[in-house]
Amino acid sequence: MEATVAAPFSSFVTSTQNSSSSPCSLLLSRKNLGSVNLRFKSRLSVRASSTSDSVVTLLDYGAGNVRSIRNALRHLGFSIKDVQTPGDILNADRLIFPGVGAFAPAMDVLNKTGMGEALCTYIDNDRPFLGICLGLQLLFDSSEENGPVKGLGVIPGTVGRFDSLAGIRVPHIGWNALQVGKDSEILDDVGNRHVYFVHSYRAIPSNENKDWVSSTCHYGESFISSIRRGNVHAVQFHPEKSGEVGLSVLRRFLDPKSSSKQKPEEGKASKLAKRVIACLDVRTNDKGDLVVTKGDQYDVREQSNENEVRNLGKPVDLARQYYKDGADEISFLNITGFRDFPLGDLPMIQVLRYTSENVFVPLTVGGGIRDFTDATGRYYSSLEVAAEYFRSGADKISIGSDAVYAAEEFIKSGAKTGKSSLEQISRVYGNQAVVVSIDPRRVYVNDPDDVPYKVIRVTNPGPNGEEYAWYQCTVSGGREGRPIGAYELAKAVEELGAGEILLNCIDCDGQGKGFDTDLVKLISDSVGIPVIASSGAGTPEHFSEVFETTNASAALAAGIFHRKEVPIQSVKEHLLEKSIEVRM
């Protein structure tokens, strides 16, 4: 797989390393050669930097959302120096490696640019280092992801995939608890609170690496959630997406002598929490302003003489408020086509950039993730569109209509083409970065054999007393029905590379009568990836109902939050009363 490489690395000198050996294993072998070691040290020596204490060196190899860590560092009062040559790594006072994407492409970049060898030298000299997510995994001997693939070889062990046969959903997405060991240092202010994970691969503690492990997390099994040796740290979770708790981790790394002015409030995190997600449907109103709106069964216009677009606020302002209110994630759905704009000028790009400056929880964006040609005739692939969203602050992208067409073709042919937006984006950025949004409509039938789709017995009979229904998928914002059911679509997109499903229901949208638990149970019982329940929330009890009666990993709401009918904190307090774990 080809990795997308940022422009600054075009000047890197290609490494002559043997690809079958890790950069750090080569370093160790050179050290054992005596005189060769002297020549090696003179070429890759570490010298003290003259930069200010407020500067952090960032290793961005060009894949995924690195804007979030940049914004978090700036929020904490630090400026950023980007790595442009291996020498920049060696001369760094503090180095952060926010690895995003897949293991093999990342190692390919490190090997070809000489950064891998420079990293090993830097770490071997016990310089201040923080690896994040993939930045932790790359320190191990190897990974099974599209492999085996050699890693940097700093820490003994192999990075393997979570075992879905253990009854867990893969990827591991959401807010989980840490079991912190002694001398963790940068985790001292976590205070038994949740942090945010999103990954399909993990490293397991062993006798060989136990001296490195500073915390573990439980998800089907105990895995390494952070390591520390001297000044070298790495975490599997995303501190830049873990709210104030995550910012405390970054602050302790950047200034080890710092500590909270007051003892952090002790949390009660014990396991993976159920997520409460705020959704913002964004479109232009009739005056051309970008607003947050909300549909009633997907109709976003007021039932008035003016028939204007329902305006519930400005997207960036609302997103910032929901972050303060405790939303676990924020999802933007672009329901206006901006096809005349050059890619970099798309209004949703600007929304993401501004939002990510002060919102430190995961951001998902959906709508328009497909191939298109702008007004100048410039063609953009769906992969380019997704890449721009990731660079602008999105952590996940949501695909709707394109995924339906890809699933139909897959079911028809029985073969993957590798050309759909879903497959391409998942292959480059990992399936944890791809959400498929399903927009089904309930279709009642008298007999399960009436249609060639998955039919279930429904809790509430149809208008003519029908006891059965199937869920027809739609495209184009619910305007066009397709010959595929929600069950068939969910199974297909999981095969094609989706890492999560956002499950809407047109019949329940805007009604405030609760989620369609029949539908949510059907889909969450049928796939091995997380499912987000959406459409119909009207009270806190609707959230506990969907979590108690289905295997949904998260529940999403829009209108009740926009109209301030139900505060996010009220939902979470209710869930705690029902003994449902949530992040507080």
UniProtKB/TrEMBL annotation:
It comes from the Eukaryota. The keyword tRNA-binding does not apply. InterPro entries: Aldolase_TIM (IPR013785), Class_I_gatase-like (IPR029062), GATASE (IPR017926), His_biosynth (IPR006062), HisF (IPR004651), IGPS_HisA/HisF (IPR050064), IGPS_HisHF (IPR014640), Imidazole-glycPsynth_HisH (IPR010139). It is an enzyme of class 3 (hydrolase). It catalyses: 5-[(5-phospho-1-deoxy-D-ribulos-1-ylimino)methylamino]-1-(5-phospho-beta-D-ribosyl)imidazole-4-carboxamide + L-glutamine = D-erythro-1-(imidazol-4-yl)glycerol 3-phosphate + 5-amino-1-(5-phospho-beta-D-ribosyl)imidazole-4-carboxamide + L-glutamate + H(+); L-glutamine + H2O = L-glutamate + NH4(+). Its EC number is 3.5.1.2. Keywords: Amino-acid biosynthesis, Chloroplast, Glutamine amidotransferase, Histidine biosynthesis, Hydrolase, Lyase, Multifunctional enzyme, Plastid. Residues 1-22 are annotated as: Disordered. The keyword Hydrolase applies. It holds the Pfam family GATase. Residues 58-253 form the Glutamine amidotransferase domain. Residues 10-22 have a biased composition (Low complexity). Pathway: Amino-acid biosynthesis; L-histidine biosynthesis; L-histidine from 5-phospho-alpha-D-ribose 1-diphosphate: step 5/9. It is found in: Plastid, Chloroplast. In the C-terminal section; belongs to the HisA/HisF family. Belongs to the HisA/HisF family. IGPS catalyzes the conversion of PRFAR and glutamine to IGP, AICAR and glutamate. The glutaminase domain produces the ammonia necessary for the cyclase domain to produce IGP and AICAR from PRFAR. The ammonia is channeled to the active site of the cyclase domain. This is Imidazole glycerol phosphate synthase hisHF.
